[in-house]
Amino acid sequence: MFTRRDFLRSAGGVTLLALRPLGRGLFAAPAAAAPRLPLFTVLPYIQPGSGSVLTDNAESMVIAWQTLPGMADFTVDFGASPRYGRAAAASRVDRTAVRGGDGQTRLNWATVLDGLRLGQKHFYRVRGNGTTLAEGYFTTRQPRGQKIRFVSFGDNSYGDISDRAIAFHTYRQNPDFVMNCGDNVYESGTDDEYQRYFFPVYNADLAGERVGAPLLRSVPFYTVIANHDVQGKDARGHEIANFMLNTDALAYYTAMHLPLNGPTAPTYPTPMMGPDDRIAAFRACAGDRFPRMANYSFDYGDAHFLCLDSNRYTDPNDPALQRWIADDLSRTDAIWTFVVYHHPAYNVGREHYTVQHMRVLSPLFEARGVDFVLSGHEHNYQRARPLRFAPSGPGRSAALGEADRRVPGTFTIDRSFDGVANTRPDGVLYIVTGAGGKHLYEPEFTDNPASWIHADDGNVEYVTKMVSDRHSLSVFEIDGTHLAMTQVDETGREIDRFVVTKGRRTS
Ligand SMILES: [Fe+2]
Prior knowledge:
The chain has helices at residues 161-172, 191-202, 252-255, 276-286, 289-292, 319-331, 362-367, and strands spanning 14-17, 20-23, 26-28, 40-47, 59-67, 74-79, 86-89, 91-99, 102-116, 121-128, 131-139, 148-153, 177-180, 203-208, 212-214, 221-222, 241-242, 272-273, 296-300, 303-307, 336-340, 372-375, 381-384, 387-391, 409-413, 429-433, 463-467, 472-479, 482-489, 494-501. By secondary structure, the chain is mainly beta. The strands form eight sheets. It has a seven-stranded mixed beta sheet, with helices on one face. A six-stranded mixed beta sheet has the order 16-13-12-28-29-30, with helices on one face. The chain is globular. Bound molecules: fe (ii) ion. Fe (ii) ion is lined by residues 155, 183, 226-228, 342, 377.
Protein backbone atom coordinates (compact mmCIF):
# COMPACT_ATOMS: atom_id res chain seq x y z
CA MET A 1 0.00 0.00 0.00
CA PHE A 2 1.29 3.42 -0.89
CA THR A 3 -0.29 6.64 0.20
CA ARG A 4 -0.72 9.46 -2.28
CA ARG A 5 1.65 12.16 -1.10
CA ASP A 6 1.42 14.94 -3.63
CA PHE A 7 0.87 17.55 -0.95
CA LEU A 8 2.79 20.59 0.23
CA ARG A 9 5.82 19.85 2.30
CA SER A 10 8.57 22.00 3.68
CA ALA A 11 11.23 19.45 4.58
CA GLY A 12 14.72 19.86 3.28
CA GLY A 13 14.24 22.81 1.00
CA VAL A 14 11.49 21.28 -1.08
CA THR A 15 8.21 23.08 -0.71
CA LEU A 16 6.23 21.00 -3.16
CA LEU A 17 6.76 17.52 -4.49
CA ALA A 18 4.15 16.18 -6.87
CA LEU A 19 5.95 12.94 -7.67
CA ARG A 20 4.32 10.08 -5.77
CA PRO A 21 6.07 6.83 -4.93
CA LEU A 22 4.86 3.72 -6.72
CA GLY A 23 7.40 1.47 -5.11
CA ARG A 24 10.95 1.60 -3.87
CA GLY A 25 12.87 3.94 -6.18
CA LEU A 26 9.98 4.54 -8.59
CA PHE A 27 7.90 7.71 -8.72
CA ALA A 28 5.00 8.85 -10.90
CA ALA A 29 4.23 12.37 -12.11
CA PRO A 30 0.64 13.66 -11.91
CA ALA A 31 -1.62 12.35 -14.64
CA ALA A 32 -2.28 15.96 -15.71
CA ALA A 33 1.08 16.10 -17.49
CA ALA A 34 0.33 15.48 -21.13
CA PRO A 35 1.74 13.54 -22.80
CA ARG A 36 2.14 11.40 -19.72
CA LEU A 37 5.63 11.69 -18.24
CA PRO A 38 7.93 8.70 -17.82
CA LEU A 39 8.34 7.22 -14.35
CA PHE A 40 11.12 8.71 -12.22
CA THR A 41 13.84 6.43 -10.82
CA VAL A 42 15.66 9.25 -8.99
CA LEU A 43 13.91 12.35 -7.65
CA PRO A 44 15.34 15.79 -8.49
CA TYR A 45 18.54 16.49 -6.54
CA ILE A 46 21.05 19.30 -6.58
CA GLN A 47 24.77 19.06 -7.30
CA PRO A 48 27.52 21.67 -6.96
CA GLY A 49 28.36 21.74 -10.66
CA SER A 50 31.62 22.87 -12.21
CA GLY A 51 32.40 25.98 -10.10
CA SER A 52 35.82 25.99 -8.45
CA VAL A 53 36.93 29.51 -7.48
CA LEU A 54 34.40 31.92 -5.97
CA THR A 55 33.15 34.43 -8.52
CA ASP A 56 30.03 36.48 -7.97
CA ASN A 57 27.38 36.26 -10.69
CA ALA A 58 29.17 33.21 -12.13
CA GLU A 59 27.98 30.66 -9.61
CA SER A 60 26.10 27.60 -10.84
CA MET A 61 24.10 24.70 -9.50
CA VAL A 62 23.01 21.54 -11.28
CA ILE A 63 19.54 20.05 -10.83
CA ALA A 64 19.50 16.41 -11.92
CA TRP A 65 17.09 13.47 -11.88
CA GLN A 66 16.55 10.17 -13.60
CA THR A 67 13.60 8.64 -15.43
CA LEU A 68 12.68 5.57 -17.41
CA PRO A 69 12.40 6.19 -21.17
CA GLY A 70 9.50 8.28 -22.37
CA MET A 71 8.38 11.50 -23.97
CA ALA A 72 9.28 14.46 -21.81
CA ASP A 73 9.89 18.15 -22.10
CA PHE A 74 11.52 19.20 -18.84
CA THR A 75 12.25 22.77 -17.77
CA VAL A 76 13.71 24.21 -14.58
CA ASP A 77 12.61 27.72 -13.61
CA PHE A 78 14.94 29.48 -11.20
CA GLY A 79 15.80 32.79 -9.63
CA ALA A 80 16.52 34.68 -6.44
CA SER A 81 12.82 35.02 -5.64
CA PRO A 82 9.89 32.56 -5.74
CA ARG A 83 8.85 34.33 -8.95
CA TYR A 84 11.88 32.67 -10.60
CA GLY A 85 12.54 34.82 -13.68
CA ARG A 86 14.80 32.50 -15.64
CA ALA A 87 14.35 29.06 -17.17
CA ALA A 88 16.77 26.37 -18.30
CA ALA A 89 16.08 23.35 -20.46
CA ALA A 90 17.17 19.91 -19.29
CA SER A 91 19.55 17.78 -21.30
CA ARG A 92 19.61 14.00 -21.11
CA VAL A 93 21.78 10.99 -21.76
CA ASP A 94 20.76 7.35 -21.59
CA ARG A 95 22.39 4.69 -19.44
CA THR A 96 21.50 1.07 -19.07
CA ALA A 97 21.34 -0.02 -15.47
CA VAL A 98 21.22 -3.64 -14.44
CA ARG A 99 19.24 -5.23 -11.66
CA GLY A 100 19.09 -8.98 -11.18
CA GLY A 101 20.38 -9.60 -14.69
CA ASP A 102 17.77 -7.41 -16.38
CA GLY A 103 18.90 -4.30 -18.22
CA GLN A 104 16.83 -1.15 -17.81
CA THR A 105 17.45 2.03 -19.76
CA ARG A 106 17.40 5.10 -17.55
CA LEU A 107 17.57 8.67 -18.75
CA ASN A 108 19.96 10.90 -16.80
CA TRP A 109 18.63 14.45 -16.88
CA ALA A 110 20.61 17.52 -15.86
CA THR A 111 19.99 21.24 -15.89
CA VAL A 112 22.67 23.83 -15.24
CA LEU A 113 21.47 26.96 -13.45
CA ASP A 114 24.21 29.50 -14.07
CA GLY A 115 25.04 33.15 -13.61
CA LEU A 116 24.05 33.00 -9.94
CA ARG A 117 25.17 35.27 -7.13
CA LEU A 118 27.30 33.88 -4.30
CA GLY A 119 25.84 33.24 -0.86
CA GLN A 120 22.25 33.74 -1.92
CA LYS A 121 19.11 31.69 -1.53
CA HIS A 122 17.69 30.63 -4.91
CA PHE A 123 14.37 29.07 -5.76
CA TYR A 124 13.79 26.39 -8.37
CA ARG A 125 10.84 24.63 -9.95
CA VAL A 126 11.04 21.49 -12.05
CA ARG A 127 8.34 21.18 -14.68
CA GLY A 128 7.61 18.30 -17.05
CA ASN A 129 5.36 18.79 -20.07
CA GLY A 130 4.14 21.96 -18.39
CA THR A 131 3.19 20.38 -15.05
CA THR A 132 4.99 21.40 -11.85
CA LEU A 133 6.74 18.40 -10.31
CA ALA A 134 8.91 19.89 -7.59
CA GLU A 135 9.61 23.27 -6.05
CA GLY A 136 12.51 23.98 -3.74
CA TYR A 137 15.40 26.19 -2.88
CA PHE A 138 19.13 26.12 -2.23
CA THR A 139 21.83 28.56 -1.21
CA THR A 140 24.87 29.13 -3.42
CA ARG A 141 28.42 28.99 -2.02
CA GLN A 142 29.33 31.57 0.56
CA PRO A 143 31.92 34.18 -0.41
CA ARG A 144 35.05 34.85 1.65
CA GLY A 145 34.42 36.26 5.11
CA GLN A 146 31.20 34.34 5.77
CA LYS A 147 30.73 31.69 8.44
CA ILE A 148 30.27 28.19 7.09
CA ARG A 149 29.30 24.81 8.49
CA PHE A 150 29.81 21.51 6.72
CA VAL A 151 29.50 17.84 7.58
CA SER A 152 31.95 15.16 6.55
CA PHE A 153 31.73 11.36 6.60
CA GLY A 154 32.61 8.47 4.32
CA ASP A 155 31.87 4.80 3.68
CA ASN A 156 28.17 5.28 3.82
CA SER A 157 25.54 3.74 1.57
CA TYR A 158 24.45 0.13 1.62
CA GLY A 159 20.88 0.63 2.70
CA ASP A 160 21.68 0.02 6.36
CA ILE A 161 19.81 1.62 9.21
CA SER A 162 23.05 3.32 10.26
CA ASP A 163 23.26 5.11 6.88
CA ARG A 164 19.87 6.61 7.61
CA ALA A 165 20.82 7.69 11.14
CA ILE A 166 23.93 9.44 9.81
CA ALA A 167 21.87 11.16 7.09
CA PHE A 168 19.35 12.29 9.70
CA HIS A 169 21.96 13.68 12.09
CA THR A 170 23.72 15.39 9.18
CA TYR A 171 20.41 17.06 8.34
CA ARG A 172 19.96 18.15 11.97
CA GLN A 173 23.27 19.99 11.76
CA ASN A 174 21.82 22.15 8.98
CA PRO A 175 25.07 22.09 6.96
CA ASP A 176 25.85 24.38 4.04
CA PHE A 177 27.18 21.31 2.24
CA VAL A 178 28.40 17.76 2.75
CA MET A 179 31.99 16.73 2.07
CA ASN A 180 31.96 12.98 1.63
CA CYS A 181 35.21 11.00 1.96
CA GLY A 182 34.42 8.30 -0.59
CA ASP A 183 32.86 4.84 -0.87
CA ASN A 184 29.67 6.69 -1.68
CA VAL A 185 27.79 3.47 -2.31
CA TYR A 186 28.40 -0.27 -1.91
CA GLU A 187 29.42 -2.69 -3.26
CA SER A 188 30.44 -1.71 -6.76
CA GLY A 189 29.51 1.94 -7.36
CA THR A 190 26.88 1.08 -9.98
CA ASP A 191 24.08 3.30 -11.10
CA ASP A 192 21.56 0.81 -9.75
CA GLU A 193 23.22 0.90 -6.32
CA TYR A 194 23.00 4.68 -6.27
CA GLN A 195 19.32 4.39 -7.10
CA ARG A 196 18.70 1.81 -4.36
CA TYR A 197 21.02 2.84 -1.52
CA PHE A 198 22.12 6.43 -2.00
CA PHE A 199 19.29 8.60 -3.25
CA PRO A 200 16.51 7.10 -1.07
CA VAL A 201 18.58 7.81 2.06
CA TYR A 202 20.05 11.26 1.38
CA ASN A 203 17.06 12.46 -0.60
CA ALA A 204 14.30 10.90 1.50
CA ASP A 205 11.03 12.83 1.62
CA LEU A 206 10.99 12.92 5.39
CA ALA A 207 13.66 13.18 8.06
CA GLY A 208 14.06 10.46 10.66
CA GLU A 209 16.71 8.34 12.33
CA ARG A 210 15.34 5.24 10.59
CA VAL A 211 14.39 7.02 7.36
CA GLY A 212 17.23 9.28 6.24
CA ALA A 213 16.77 12.93 5.35
CA PRO A 214 15.81 15.28 2.52
CA LEU A 215 19.34 16.59 2.08
CA LEU A 216 20.14 16.34 -1.62
CA ARG A 217 17.31 18.60 -2.75
CA SER A 218 18.89 21.62 -1.04
CA VAL A 219 22.35 20.68 0.26
CA PRO A 220 25.25 20.32 -2.21
CA PHE A 221 27.11 17.05 -1.78
CA TYR A 222 30.80 16.96 -2.68
CA THR A 223 32.62 13.66 -2.67
CA VAL A 224 35.71 11.76 -3.84
CA ILE A 225 36.04 8.59 -5.86
CA ALA A 226 37.07 5.54 -3.79
CA ASN A 227 37.56 1.81 -4.04
CA HIS A 228 33.89 0.80 -3.87
CA ASP A 229 33.14 3.34 -6.57
CA VAL A 230 35.31 1.17 -8.86
CA GLN A 231 35.44 -2.27 -7.24
CA GLY A 232 36.02 -4.70 -10.17
CA LYS A 233 39.24 -6.74 -10.27
CA ASP A 234 41.58 -7.55 -13.12
CA ALA A 235 43.49 -10.84 -13.50
CA ARG A 236 46.01 -9.71 -10.87
CA GLY A 237 43.33 -8.71 -8.39
CA HIS A 238 43.90 -5.00 -9.02
CA GLU A 239 40.98 -2.57 -9.00
CA ILE A 240 39.40 -1.87 -12.37
CA ALA A 241 35.90 -0.93 -13.44
CA ASN A 242 34.54 -4.11 -15.01
CA PHE A 243 31.79 -3.32 -17.51
CA MET A 244 31.33 -7.00 -18.31
CA LEU A 245 30.09 -7.62 -14.76
CA ASN A 246 28.57 -4.18 -14.17
CA THR A 247 27.06 -2.49 -17.23
CA ASP A 248 26.36 0.55 -15.07
CA ALA A 249 29.77 0.79 -13.36
CA LEU A 250 31.41 4.10 -12.37
CA ALA A 251 28.18 5.92 -11.58
CA TYR A 252 30.36 8.37 -9.62
CA TYR A 253 31.09 9.97 -13.00
CA THR A 254 27.45 10.03 -14.13
CA ALA A 255 25.41 10.68 -10.95
CA MET A 256 27.70 13.41 -9.60
CA HIS A 257 28.29 16.85 -11.10
CA LEU A 258 31.41 18.24 -9.43
CA PRO A 259 34.05 20.84 -10.30
CA LEU A 260 35.97 20.18 -13.52
CA ASN A 261 39.26 21.91 -12.84
CA GLY A 262 41.41 18.80 -12.30
CA PRO A 263 43.95 17.38 -14.75
CA THR A 264 42.24 16.82 -18.13
CA ALA A 265 44.24 13.67 -18.70
CA PRO A 266 45.45 12.26 -15.38
CA THR A 267 48.42 9.91 -15.65
CA TYR A 268 46.44 7.26 -13.78
CA PRO A 269 42.78 7.53 -14.81
CA THR A 270 40.24 5.04 -13.46
CA PRO A 271 40.99 1.86 -15.45
CA MET A 272 38.18 0.10 -17.31
CA MET A 273 37.66 -3.31 -18.92
CA GLY A 274 34.76 -4.93 -20.73
CA PRO A 275 32.83 -4.65 -23.99
CA ASP A 276 33.67 -1.56 -26.07
CA ASP A 277 30.02 -0.62 -26.59
CA ARG A 278 29.34 -0.51 -22.83
CA ILE A 279 32.43 1.59 -22.18
CA ALA A 280 31.42 3.91 -25.04
CA ALA A 281 27.94 4.27 -23.52
CA PHE A 282 29.47 5.15 -20.15
CA ARG A 283 31.77 7.73 -21.74
CA ALA A 284 28.85 9.30 -23.60
CA CYS A 285 26.93 9.67 -20.34
CA ALA A 286 29.88 10.96 -18.30
CA GLY A 287 31.06 13.40 -20.99
CA ASP A 288 33.76 15.79 -19.71
CA ARG A 289 33.42 14.39 -16.22
CA PHE A 290 35.43 11.28 -17.04
CA PRO A 291 38.28 11.12 -16.17
CA ARG A 292 38.57 14.73 -15.04
CA MET A 293 36.28 14.60 -12.00
CA ALA A 294 38.69 12.23 -10.20
CA ASN A 295 40.65 15.24 -8.91
CA TYR A 296 39.30 18.72 -8.37
CA SER A 297 39.29 21.65 -5.99
CA PHE A 298 36.84 24.28 -4.85
CA ASP A 299 36.43 27.11 -2.39
CA TYR A 300 33.63 27.62 0.08
CA GLY A 301 33.66 30.68 2.35
CA ASP A 302 37.11 30.94 3.90
CA ALA A 303 38.04 27.35 3.07
CA HIS A 304 39.73 25.67 0.12
CA PHE A 305 39.19 21.96 -0.63
CA LEU A 306 41.48 19.79 -2.71
CA CYS A 307 39.84 16.45 -3.54
CA LEU A 308 42.02 13.61 -4.80
CA ASP A 309 41.61 10.12 -6.21
CA SER A 310 43.67 7.88 -3.89
CA ASN A 311 42.59 4.56 -5.40
CA ARG A 312 45.24 1.87 -5.60
CA TYR A 313 45.62 2.37 -9.37
CA THR A 314 47.03 5.86 -8.70
CA ASP A 315 50.63 6.78 -7.93
CA PRO A 316 50.97 9.90 -5.77
CA ASN A 317 54.64 10.11 -6.82
CA ASP A 318 53.46 11.12 -10.30
CA PRO A 319 55.25 14.43 -11.05
CA ALA A 320 52.34 15.77 -13.12
CA LEU A 321 49.90 15.17 -10.26
CA GLN A 322 52.27 16.71 -7.72
CA ARG A 323 52.72 19.77 -9.93
CA TRP A 324 48.96 20.19 -10.20
CA ILE A 325 48.57 19.81 -6.41
CA ALA A 326 51.38 22.29 -5.70
CA ASP A 327 49.90 24.83 -8.14
CA ASP A 328 46.45 24.44 -6.70
CA LEU A 329 47.60 24.85 -3.09
CA SER A 330 49.84 27.80 -3.99
CA ARG A 331 47.07 29.68 -5.72
CA THR A 332 44.54 29.73 -2.90
CA ASP A 333 44.26 32.64 -0.51
CA ALA A 334 41.73 30.87 1.72
CA ILE A 335 42.35 30.92 5.46
CA TRP A 336 41.81 27.15 5.74
CA THR A 337 42.95 24.38 3.44
CA PHE A 338 41.50 20.88 3.45
CA VAL A 339 42.71 17.92 1.43
CA VAL A 340 40.21 15.10 1.00
CA TYR A 341 41.04 11.60 -0.23
CA HIS A 342 39.73 8.18 0.69
CA HIS A 343 42.72 6.02 1.75
CA PRO A 344 44.09 7.40 5.03
CA ALA A 345 47.83 7.93 5.17
CA TYR A 346 47.88 7.60 8.96
CA ASN A 347 45.54 5.06 10.41
CA VAL A 348 46.10 2.57 13.19
CA GLY A 349 43.25 0.19 12.33
CA ARG A 350 43.85 -3.39 11.27
CA GLU A 351 41.90 -3.41 8.02
CA HIS A 352 43.77 -0.99 5.80
CA TYR A 353 46.88 -0.07 7.74
CA THR A 354 49.30 -0.94 4.92
CA VAL A 355 47.61 1.22 2.25
CA GLN A 356 49.94 4.13 3.01
CA HIS A 357 50.87 5.45 -0.45
CA MET A 358 49.31 8.88 0.18
CA ARG A 359 51.99 9.49 2.83
CA VAL A 360 54.40 10.62 0.10
CA LEU A 361 52.30 13.77 -0.36
CA SER A 362 52.66 14.88 3.26
CA PRO A 363 55.80 17.01 2.75
CA LEU A 364 53.99 18.84 -0.08
CA PHE A 365 50.96 19.46 2.14
CA GLU A 366 53.17 20.67 4.98
CA ALA A 367 55.07 23.06 2.72
CA ARG A 368 51.86 24.50 1.25
CA GLY A 369 50.07 25.12 4.54
CA VAL A 370 47.42 22.38 4.48
CA ASP A 371 45.45 22.36 7.74
CA PHE A 372 43.39 19.19 7.52
CA VAL A 373 43.39 15.93 5.61
CA LEU A 374 40.05 14.09 5.68
CA SER A 375 39.80 10.42 4.76
CA GLY A 376 37.59 7.38 5.17
CA HIS A 377 38.19 3.74 4.16
CA GLU A 378 38.66 2.68 7.78
CA HIS A 379 35.13 2.37 9.11
CA ASN A 380 35.68 4.30 12.31
CA TYR A 381 36.74 7.69 13.63
CA GLN A 382 40.42 8.43 14.23
CA ARG A 383 41.92 11.80 15.05
CA ALA A 384 45.68 12.17 14.82
CA ARG A 385 47.79 14.65 16.70
CA PRO A 386 49.17 17.45 14.51
CA LEU A 387 52.00 15.78 12.64
CA ARG A 388 54.74 16.15 10.09
CA PHE A 389 56.09 13.17 8.22
CA ALA A 390 59.39 12.78 6.38
CA PRO A 391 59.31 9.67 4.18
CA SER A 392 62.62 7.82 4.26
CA GLY A 393 62.05 7.04 0.57
CA PRO A 394 59.18 6.02 -1.69
CA GLY A 395 58.82 2.66 0.09
CA ARG A 396 56.09 0.69 -1.65
CA SER A 397 54.08 3.78 -2.53
CA ALA A 398 54.45 3.12 -6.26
CA ALA A 399 53.41 -0.56 -6.06
CA LEU A 400 50.32 0.08 -8.18
CA GLY A 401 47.30 -2.01 -7.36
CA GLU A 402 48.83 -3.66 -4.31
CA ALA A 403 47.35 -3.61 -0.82
CA ASP A 404 50.79 -3.23 0.74
CA ARG A 405 51.79 0.34 -0.07
CA ARG A 406 53.79 0.97 3.09
CA VAL A 407 55.91 4.11 3.34
CA PRO A 408 58.36 4.23 6.25
CA GLY A 409 59.55 7.56 7.58
CA THR A 410 59.98 9.86 10.53
CA PHE A 411 57.12 11.39 12.46
CA THR A 412 57.26 14.73 14.23
CA ILE A 413 54.28 14.92 16.56
CA ASP A 414 52.86 18.01 18.27
CA ARG A 415 51.88 16.71 21.70
CA SER A 416 51.01 20.10 23.15
CA PHE A 417 47.99 20.78 20.92
CA ASP A 418 44.81 19.77 22.70
CA GLY A 419 42.23 21.85 20.84
CA VAL A 420 41.09 23.45 24.11
CA ALA A 421 43.85 25.37 25.88
CA ASN A 422 46.26 25.12 22.96
CA THR A 423 44.43 25.64 19.68
CA ARG A 424 47.42 26.24 17.39
CA PRO A 425 48.56 22.95 15.89
CA ASP A 426 52.12 22.51 14.68
CA GLY A 427 51.52 20.14 11.80
CA VAL A 428 48.69 18.80 9.69
CA LEU A 429 45.55 17.38 11.32
CA TYR A 430 44.66 14.02 9.76
CA ILE A 431 41.12 12.84 10.43
CA VAL A 432 39.62 9.47 9.50
CA THR A 433 35.85 9.84 9.40
CA GLY A 434 34.82 6.59 7.77
CA ALA A 435 32.07 5.61 10.20
CA GLY A 436 29.35 6.96 7.89
CA GLY A 437 27.13 3.90 7.81
CA LYS A 438 28.87 0.70 6.70
CA HIS A 439 29.69 -1.96 9.31
CA LEU A 440 32.33 -0.79 11.80
CA TYR A 441 35.92 -1.96 12.06
CA GLU A 442 37.67 -2.82 15.35
CA PRO A 443 35.08 -1.70 17.92
CA GLU A 444 37.43 -2.90 20.65
CA PHE A 445 39.92 -0.15 19.75
CA THR A 446 37.62 2.50 21.24
CA ASP A 447 39.24 4.28 24.19
CA ASN A 448 42.06 1.74 24.09
CA PRO A 449 45.20 3.75 23.29
CA ALA A 450 47.43 0.71 23.77
CA SER A 451 46.04 -0.58 20.46
CA TRP A 452 46.71 2.66 18.56
CA ILE A 453 50.35 1.97 17.76
CA HIS A 454 52.25 -0.02 15.14
CA ALA A 455 55.76 -1.38 15.41
CA ASP A 456 56.17 -0.46 11.72
CA ASP A 457 55.73 3.18 12.68
CA GLY A 458 58.13 2.89 15.62
CA ASN A 459 55.14 2.70 17.99
CA VAL A 460 54.66 6.44 17.53
CA GLU A 461 51.45 7.55 19.25
CA TYR A 462 50.09 9.70 16.48
CA VAL A 463 46.42 8.90 17.11
CA THR A 464 44.94 10.74 20.08
CA LYS A 465 41.29 9.76 19.77
CA MET A 466 39.63 6.74 18.22
CA VAL A 467 35.96 5.78 18.31
CA SER A 468 35.12 2.60 16.46
CA ASP A 469 32.13 1.23 18.38
CA ARG A 470 29.54 3.50 16.78
CA HIS A 471 28.86 5.36 13.55
CA SER A 472 29.62 9.06 13.48
CA LEU A 473 29.99 12.20 11.40
CA SER A 474 32.26 15.25 11.57
CA VAL A 475 30.88 18.78 11.81
CA PHE A 476 33.16 21.69 10.92
CA GLU A 477 32.24 25.25 11.80
CA ILE A 478 34.47 27.96 10.40
CA ASP A 479 34.26 31.58 11.43
CA GLY A 480 37.23 33.50 10.05
CA THR A 481 40.34 32.30 11.84
CA HIS A 482 38.36 30.16 14.30
CA LEU A 483 37.46 26.56 13.50
CA ALA A 484 35.57 24.07 15.67
CA MET A 485 35.23 20.41 14.83
CA THR A 486 32.70 18.20 16.55
CA GLN A 487 32.31 14.46 16.07
CA VAL A 488 28.67 13.44 16.48
CA ASP A 489 27.56 9.83 16.80
CA GLU A 490 24.56 8.13 15.22
CA THR A 491 22.34 9.07 18.15
CA GLY A 492 23.29 12.74 17.94
CA ARG A 493 25.70 12.65 20.89
CA GLU A 494 28.96 14.60 20.80
CA ILE A 495 31.93 12.22 21.10
CA ASP A 496 34.83 14.56 20.33
CA ARG A 497 35.37 18.27 19.98
CA PHE A 498 38.32 20.55 19.43
CA VAL A 499 39.08 24.08 18.29
CA VAL A 500 41.79 25.34 15.95
CA THR A 501 42.71 29.01 15.63
CA LYS A 502 45.25 30.83 13.52
CA GLY A 503 46.35 34.23 12.35
CA ARG A 504 45.43 35.30 8.85
CA ARG A 505 47.87 34.52 6.10
CA THR A 506 49.82 37.54 4.97
CA SER A 507 50.59 36.22 1.51
FE1 LIG B 1 37.08 2.12 1.11
